[in-house]
């Protein structure tokens, strides 16, 4: 599997897992979703908002790649989140609808990435104002790893609330070798 194929697999995994996490979360009452569970971002909805914030920030940075990915145009025009714990949505349904839209954008963007695109050094500025010049492929891997990390926290919080998300392993989506 080449790098671009792996990126596409990760985009598919991201969308698949977000459906599973949100489907599970939608079974809970609002009080459980907003309850402070002492996680990095407090609550289930806080954690899911953080993922949306971070994904938006990274996709806006990726939109600055010289390939000028058409799929990222709508994300580039979104307001830039101002804090990693910003609550973009207070209601889970609104958050889920935006998440589904963003996951569609991510899948479309992943389809457009070419192998030569991956060797680019991307210049960006962090939310703390720190400049970075990093390998584009490595940043994409960070993007997907970050999602997996915080979705793992969300699935733990859901499990503690009595909701089973089901299978979460990437291996479920990796095709069998012929």
UniProtKB/TrEMBL annotation:
Entry superkingdom: Bacteria
GO MF terms, alphabetically ordered: metal ion binding
A UniProt-annotated Pfam family: DinB
Alphabetically ordered keywords of this record: Metal-binding
Signal peptide location: none
Membrane spanning stretches: none
Matches recorded under InterPro entries: DinB, DinB/YfiT-like
SUPFAM superfamilies: DinB/YfiT-like putative metalloenzymes
Keyword presence, Metal-binding: yes
Binding locations of a divalent metal cation: 50, 146, 150
Family listed: Belongs to the DinB family.
Stated name of the protein: Damage-inducible protein DinB
Organism: Methylovulum psychrotolerans
């Amino acid at each position: 599997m080449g790098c671009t194929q792996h990126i596409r697999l990760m985009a598919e995994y991201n969308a698949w897992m977000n459906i599973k996490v949100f489907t599970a979360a939608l079974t809970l009452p609002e009080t459980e979703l907003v309850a402070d569970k002492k996680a990095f971002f407090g609550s289930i909805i806080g954690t899911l908002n953080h993922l949306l914030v971070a994904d938006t920030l990274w996709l806006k940075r990726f939109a600055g790649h010289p390939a000028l990915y058409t799929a990222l145009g709508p994300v580039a025009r979104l307001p830039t989140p101002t804090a990693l714990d910003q609550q973009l949505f207070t209601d889970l349904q609104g958050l889920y609808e935006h998440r589904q839209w963003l996951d569609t954008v991510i899948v479309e963007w992943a389809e457009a990435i070419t192998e030569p695109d991956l060797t680019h050094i991307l210049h960006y500025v962090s939310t703390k104002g720190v400049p970075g010049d990093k390998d584009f492929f490595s940043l994409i891997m960070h993007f997907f790893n970050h999602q997996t990390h915080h979705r793992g926290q969300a699935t733990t919080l859901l499990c503690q609330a009595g909701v089973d998300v089901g299978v979460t392993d990437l291996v479920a989506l990796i095709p069998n070798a012929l």
